[in-house]
C-alpha cells in the first residue's frame, strides 16, 4: 500500500490546486501558441514502434498544459508512487489486492521473452506454449487442414463471449480487417438477447461453422446460455456428440467447467487468473483475431503492445507518453471538473475502439474506494465515450463546440489509409477534418469575427465559439497490427496511471456483481406464475407487467 489514502493529501495535489487557482481562468490556449513558437515541439512526443518500425506522434500541446503544470503533474505521479506500482505490475506482484492477483497481461505480449514470474514461477513457457497452440490451430483453420465433421473447410467463425471476451476480439478484428482472410465470415455473439445468436446462426451452416466459446470464468450466464443454444443448433444437424470436437473450442481459465460443457481439453486454449477480462485480447481470448488476420499479424499486434510496455516501463515520466495522457486526465477530472472524455478515431476500421475503451477505462476506474478502504474525496474515472469521426462531427460535436461542458478529447488518425480511394483524396479530406476540429475547438470564433462576417446582431452570440477546448491528437503512420497493439497498450497505461493517482484498485470489478445476483433471482420469478415478489413497488409492477404482456402471468 502506498503511504497515503487520499490523493488530496499529497503535497503535489495541493500545489496543483494552487497552480490551478492562479492559472485556471487565465488559460487561453491560442495565446500559448502565439507566445511560444516551440509549444508544439515542447508538448508533443513521438513513440518509436519497434513492432512495425513506424512512429506514432502524440500531440499534447493543445491541452491546458504549461511546463510548470507538467512538472507538478509529474511530481504528483512520483508522490503517488506510480513508478513503484508500475514496477510491481511488471514484477507480477498481486497489485489487484482485493482479488489477491497479479495484473500480468503485459506477460502475454512479452515477445522478447524477458523473465517474468508470478509467485516465483516463470510464466514465459506457459504463455509461449498457448501462443504456439494458437498459431498451429489458426493456421489449420485458415488453410482448411482443420475440417468440420463432414470433411468441409471452416467458413464461419462465431466467437461467443461478453465484456472483455467479446469487445477486444470484435474491435481488433474490425480494426485490422485489411489484413484478414475475407473468405472467413466472423460473428461475435455477446448479448443474451436471443436475436444476437439467432441472427448469427441464420447465416451459418453447421458443417462449416466453428464456435469459439470465450469466457475467462466459463460461468458467465450470457455466454454459457448462448453457447448451449449454439450446441443444440449444431447437434440438430450433426446428431453425433463426437462431432462437437471439430466445431467447438473453449478459451478459458476454467478447465472443469469447459469439460462439463462437453469441450475436449485438447480444444481448450487456456490462460491464467492474472489476466483480467478487459485485458485479455492478448491471451487465448484473441484466437478469433489470430484466425482472421493470421498468426504473424497477431504476433505483430502483441509486439506493438510490448513496445509500448517498454516505453511505459523505461521512459522518464516527463517523456512517458501514457503517463502524460493519464496525468492530463486527472488534471481535467479533478481540477477542471471534467466528467467525460471523448475518443474519436478518424478511422472507420476503428469504429469499435471507443466501445472497447469504455470497458477498459470505466470498468477499471469506476471506483470510489481508495486502496486503504476510504471513500475518495475527489472525482475518479471519467465517462469515456466516442464514435468515429467524421460521423461524430455531424451528430454530437455541436456540444463539444458550443455546449457548457468541458470535454477533453482524443483524436486519432493514420497518415496512410488501407483504402486510398481516389488517389488518397478521401484520406486527405479525413485529415483536413482531423486537423480542423482540434483547431476549431481551440481557437473558437469571437463575436467580432462573427460580426465582421455580416451576421445580424441577434445572431452574433449564437454564432460565436468560445474555443479553448483541449484536445490530444494522435497521428499514426498506418493502422498496422503493431500500431493498434501500441495504441491499446497506450490506453491501458493511461488507465493505470489514473488509477495509481486516485489510489484505487483499477483491476477488480465488484460493481458488476449486484445486478448479476438480482437478475438470477428475478429470472426464477419470471419463470414461476403469479404476482408474488418482495421487490420495491416499481420493480414488482414492472415484473408483473412483463409477465402479463409475455403471457407468463
Ligand atoms: O461482468 C463483468 C465481467 O466479469 C468482465 O470483467 C468480463 O470481461 C466479462 O464479465 C466476461 O467474463 P468472462 O470472460 O468470465 O465470461
TrEMBL record:
Pfam families referenced in this protein's UniProt entry, alphabetically: PGI
Keywords linked to the UniProt accession: Gluconeogenesis, Glycolysis, Isomerase
PROSITE patterns: P_GLUCOSE_ISOMERASE_1, P_GLUCOSE_ISOMERASE_2, P_GLUCOSE_ISOMERASE_3
Pathway: Carbohydrate degradation; glycolysis; D-glyceraldehyde 3-phosphate and glycerone phosphate from D-glucose: step 2/4
The keyword Isomerase appears for this protein: yes
Top-level EC class: isomerase
Enzyme Commission number(s) of this protein: 5.3.1.9
Top-rank lineage group of the source organism: Eukaryota
GO molecular-function term, one example from the UniProt record: glucose-6-phosphate isomerase activity
Reaction(s) the record says it catalyses: alpha-D-glucose 6-phosphate = beta-D-fructose 6-phosphate
Gene Ontology biological process terms in this record: canonical glycolysis; gluconeogenesis; glucose 6-phosphate metabolic process
Gene Ontology cellular-component terms listed: cytosol; mitochondrion
Family: Belongs to the GPI family.
Biological role: In the cytoplasm, catalyzes the conversion of glucose-6-phosphate to fructose-6-phosphate, the second step in glycolysis, and the reverse reaction during gluconeogenesis.
Protein name: Glucose-6-phosphate isomerase
The species this protein was found in: Byssochlamys spectabilis (strain No. 5 / NBRC 109023) (Paecilomyces variotii)
Amino acid at each position: 500500500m502506498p503511504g497515503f489514502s487520499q490523493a488530496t493529501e499529497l503535497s503535489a495535489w495541493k500545489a496543483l490546486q494552487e497552480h490551478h487557482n492562479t492559472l485556471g481562468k487565465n488559460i487561453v490556449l491560442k495565446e500559448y501558441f502565439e507566445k511560444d513558437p516551440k509549444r508544439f515541439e515542447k508538448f508533443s512526443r513521438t513513440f518509436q514502434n519497434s513492432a512495425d518500425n513506424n512512429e506514432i506522434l502524440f500531440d499534447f500541446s493543445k491541452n491546458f498544459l504549461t511546463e510548470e503544470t507538467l512538472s507538478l503533474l509529474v511530481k504528483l505521479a512520483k508522490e503517488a508512487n506510480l513508478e513503484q506500482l508500475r514496477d510491481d505490475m511488471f514484477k507480477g506482484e498481486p497489485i489487484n489486492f482485493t482479488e489477491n492477483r497479479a495484473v500480468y497481461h503485459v506477460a502475454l505480449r512479452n515477445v522478447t521473452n524477458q523473465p517474468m514470474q508470478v509467485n516465483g514461477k516463470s510464466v514465459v513457457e506457459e504463455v509461449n506454449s498457448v501462443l504456439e497452440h494458437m498459431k498451429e490451430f489458426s493456421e489449420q483453420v485458415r488453410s482448411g487442414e482443420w475440417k468440420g465433421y463432414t470433411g468441409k473447410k471452416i467458413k464461419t467463425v462465431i466467437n461467443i463471449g461478453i465484456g472483455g471476451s467479446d469487445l477486444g476480439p470484435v474491435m481488433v478484428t474490425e480494426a485490422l480487417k485489411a489484413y484478414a482472410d475475407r473468405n472467413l465470415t466472423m460473428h461475435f455473439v455477446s448479448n443474451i438477447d436471443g436475436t444476437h445468436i439467432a441472427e448469427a446462426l441464420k447465416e451459418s451452416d453447421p458443417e462449416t461453422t466453428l464456435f469459439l466459446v470465450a469466457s475467462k470464468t466459463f460461468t458467465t450466464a450470457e455466454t454459457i446460455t448462448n453457447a448451449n443454444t449454439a450446441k443444440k443448433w449444431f447437434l440438430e444437424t450433426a446428431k453425433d456428440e463426437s462431432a462437437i470436437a471439430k466445431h467447438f473450442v473453449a478459451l478459458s481459465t476454467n478447465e472443469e467447467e469447459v469439460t462439463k460443457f462437453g469441450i475436449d481439453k485438447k480444444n481448450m486454449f487456456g490462460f491464467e487468473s492474472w489476466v483480467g477480462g478487459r485485458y485479455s485480447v492478448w491471451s487465448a481470448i484473441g484466437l478469433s483475431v489470430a484466425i482472421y488476420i493470421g498468426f504473424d499479424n497477431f504476433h505483430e499486434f502483441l509486439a506493438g503492445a510490448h513496445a509500448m510496455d517498454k516505453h511505459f516501463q523505461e521512459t522518464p515520466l516527463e517523456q512517458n507518453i501514457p503517463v502524460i495522457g493519464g496525468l492530463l486526465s486527472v488534471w481535467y477530472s479533478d481540477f477542471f471538473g471534467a466528467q467525460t472524455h471523448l475518443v474519436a478515431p478518424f478511422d472507420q476500421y476503428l469504429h469499435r475502439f471507443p466501445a472497447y475503451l469504455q470497458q477498459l477505462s470505466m470498468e477499471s476506474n469506476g471506483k470510489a474506494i481508495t486502496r486503504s478502504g476510504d471513500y475518495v474525496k475527489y472525482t475518479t474515472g471519467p465517462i469515456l465515450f466516442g464514435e468515429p469521426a467524421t460521423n461524430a462531427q455531424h451528430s454530437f460535436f455541436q456540444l463539444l463546440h458550443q455546449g457548457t461542458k468541458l470535454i477533453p478529447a482524443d483524436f486519432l488518425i493514420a497518415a496512410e489509409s488501407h483504402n486510398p480511394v481516389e488517389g488518397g483524396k478521401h484520406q486527405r479530406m479525413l485529415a483536413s477534418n482531423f486537423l480542423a476540429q482540434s483547431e476549431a475547438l481551440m481557437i473558437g470564433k469571437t463575436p467580432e469575427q462573427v460580426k465582421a462576417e455580416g451576421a445580424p446582431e441577434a445572431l452574433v452570440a449564437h454564432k460565436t465559439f468560445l474555443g479553448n477546448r483541449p484536445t490530444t491528437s494522435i497521428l499514426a503512420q498506418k493502422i498496422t497490427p503493431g500500431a493498434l497493439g501500441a495504441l491499446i497498450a497506450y490506453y491501458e497505461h493511461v488507465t493505470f496511471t489514473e488509477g495509481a493517482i486516485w489510489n484505487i484498485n483499477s483491476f477488480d470489478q465488484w460493481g458488476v456483481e449486484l445486478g448479476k445476483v438480482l437478475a438470477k433471482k428475478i429470472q426464477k420469478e419470471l419463470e414461476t406464475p403469479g404476482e408474488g415478489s418482495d421487490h420495491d413497488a416499481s420493480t414488482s409492477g414492472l415484473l408483473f407487467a412483463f409477465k402479463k404482456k409475455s403471457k407468463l402471468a
